[in-house]
Design brief:
This protein is α/β, with parallel strands linked by helices. It is built from ten helices and 13 strands.
Length: 313
């Protein structure tokens, strides 16, 4: 069975033709006389209007996968098709019109914004770079509209990043991501640095924007409670490879891979009556670093139920 899996999971507005198709995607980083296999033979699809969450422990390759899909880094191998166009090997000039369709929101909103520039200029920058608006009343109006859309006061566009809270700064980053009316938004741990109450507000905003604009989300997270709230499908990554992929309900209610089960078992349970003895991960964490002539064992996924794929163990 191949590692590719069809998009499904009940996303509102999702269609049979996926927005994103990733096939056999790889990223290997040379490190001296060794190499780090950060992403290995990942295949997945993302439907229109769908949220696909990618989960796993730190260092499993989630963020590298996100950066590959939006072409912030170049893949070692494989194929990325965005809206029917293979963008894998496009150079900067050829890729530029396709960048309008894909945007990314990073984990740390403060690091994502220039502390020396008013936040309004940060939101306006994509519009100027892509020739969507010229400086003046039209640009100011577009920026004010984006601020309003993400729940911010448009009168604050002349303020600087340090004058906002973490949740407000992340809303600014979301407004910037929406400036070019993208179809795909990659959220790379976009709410993990926020307080729980603010986190819930930002998640609700993102879900409302998805319903309103038909956005597709690739949602990178280690927080399974958040993933269960926002996702239509879930991909579980381990050492750079996907070991389980399926609809949210299937992965959370009927996990098949032992690593998925351990991730779910590690979620804290507030009610002591519902707690149970849980097996803990033991031993050293395997390393993704390999010798120059060595290769990790390739994972193959098998469909165990409709649209639910699991790696053999």
């Amino acid at each position: 069975m191949t590692t590719a899996a069809p998009a499904s999971g009940g996303a509102a507005g999702a269609t049979a033709t996926p927005l994103v198709e990733v096939t056999e995607l790889r990223k290997v980083f040379p490190v001296g006389r060794a190499k780090v296999h950060a992403v290995e033979y990942v295949s997945l699809t993302l439907g229109r209007g769908e949220t696909l969450a990618v989960v796993g422990e730190s260092g499993c390759g989630k963020s590298t996968l996100a950066q590959l899909i939006v072409r912030l880094i170049d893949p070692t191998g494989g194929r990325i098709v965005l809206d029917g166009v293979d963008v894998t090997t496009l150079g900067p000039r050829a890729l530029r019109p396709h960048r309008r369709k894909m945007q990314i929101v990073f984990q740390d909103p403060f690091a994502s914004l220039d502390p020396r520039r008013p936040v309004g200029r940060a939101v306006a920058e994509p519009l100027l770079v892509h020739g969507e608006a010229r400086k003046g009343a039209e640009l100011d109006e577009r920026v004010a509209s984006l601020f309003t859309r993400v729940g911010l006061d448009p009168d604050h566009t002349r303020q600087f990043p340090h004058q906002f809270s973490g949740g407000q700064r992340q809303r600014i980053c979301i407004a910037r991501a929406l400036a070019l009316q993208p179809e795909l938004v990659v959220a790379d741990e976009a709410v993990s640095a926020l307080d729980v109450s603010i986190q819930a507000q930002v998640i609700n905003l993102m879900m409302d924007l998805q319903d309103e604009l038909g956005l597709s989300y690739l949602f990178i997270s280690h927080d399974l409670a958040v993933v269960e709230r926002v996702s239509h499908r879930v991909a579980v990554m381990y050492l750079g490879q996907i070991v389980e992929l399926g609809p949210r309900s299937a992965v959370f209610e009927n996990p098949q891979h032992s690593y998925t089960k351990r991730l779910l078992d590690a979620v804290p349970i507030a009610d002591p009556r519902l707690r149970r003895d849980r097996p803990l991960l033991t031993g050293e964490i395997p390393s993704p670093v390999w010798g120059v002539d060595d290769e990790p064992e390739r994972v193959e996924l098998t469909e165990v139920e409709p649209s639910h794929f699991v790696a053999a163990e």
